[in-house]
Specification:
single chain; 186 residues; alpha/beta; two-stranded antiparallel ribbon; binds NADP nicotinamide-adenine-dinucleotide phosphate
Length: 186
């Protein structure tokens, strides 16, 4: 699977964070105050248009996402386990690229739904072509789960994107409390 040509899928990271760049609170839960209806509708619409979603085992258990083909990393098995519309896999044993070769379809569009370890895994083991980051401007989650290791603000997030050759392309106002910042690979 090559990058930047016709054989390469579009891989879009999606997240909504508090103003201190957390995806969940100190208990690992996503509070209502972190949500934005506009962001949620855009996210769901993008998932509906994706051929494949990669999400963590905990998120998978919370949001089963019916009718969408899913890749779910977990350390609880060796290798991978294929079911009708999902594959559990252990990234220590098998890479995302290798898993994709076991599919009987080519995923043109892949959505990365998080959480933190999944965002990190895709940076390390695969790639993003875009990242859609929604930010709740006036909502802080002390001791929450950061979106990426060591990232607490837009400067640090942009730095991580730059390291992966991604540039900020768009700022969209979603509602009075929420903006979405988009990054794209160059
Ligand atoms: N705000 C947002 O945009 C956003 C996005 C996603 C999730 N969330 C919220 O964040 C909370 C949970 O997020 P989370 O980051 O703690 O959990 P998560 O990513 O949903 O799930 C973490 C689990 O996935 C498995 N996993 C992920 N990467 C792995 C790797 N590289 N190798 C092996 N296993 C791996 C592990 O499962 P095992 O324990 O089975 O080994 C790990 O415990 C939930 O409340 C969810 O709603 C928010």
């Amino acid at each position: 699977m090559k990058r930047n040509n016709q054989e390469s899928p579009s891989v879009i990271g999606h997240a909504i964070v508090s103003s201190n760049f957390c995806i969940a609170d100190s208990q690992g839960n996503m509070p209502e105050s972190l949500k934005s209806e506009t962001d949620w509708n855009m996210f769901q619409s993008d998932l509906d248009n994706s051929d494949l979603i990669i999400l963590g085992r905990k998120s998978f258990e919370k949001y089963s996402a019916p009718k969408r083909f899913k890749l779910v990393p977990t350390s609880s098995l060796s290798g991978y386990l294929k079911e009708e519309d999902l594959i559990f896999f252990n990234p220590k044993d098998i890479s995302i690229r290798k898993i994709l070769t076991t599919l009987d379809f080519f995923p043109k569009k892949i959505a990365i739904a998080g959480g933190r370890l999944v965002y990190e895994l895709v940076f390390k083991d695969f790639f993003y072509t875009e990242f859609h980051l929604s930010i709740k401007l006036n909502f802080v989650m002390p001791n929450g789960v950061p979106i990426l290791n060591g990232v607490e603000n837009i400067t640090q997030f942009t730095q991580r994107m730059t390291e992966c050759k991604m540039v900020r392309t768009q700022n969209i106002v979603l509602d009075k409390d929420t903006i979405q910042v988009r990054f794209q690979s160059v």
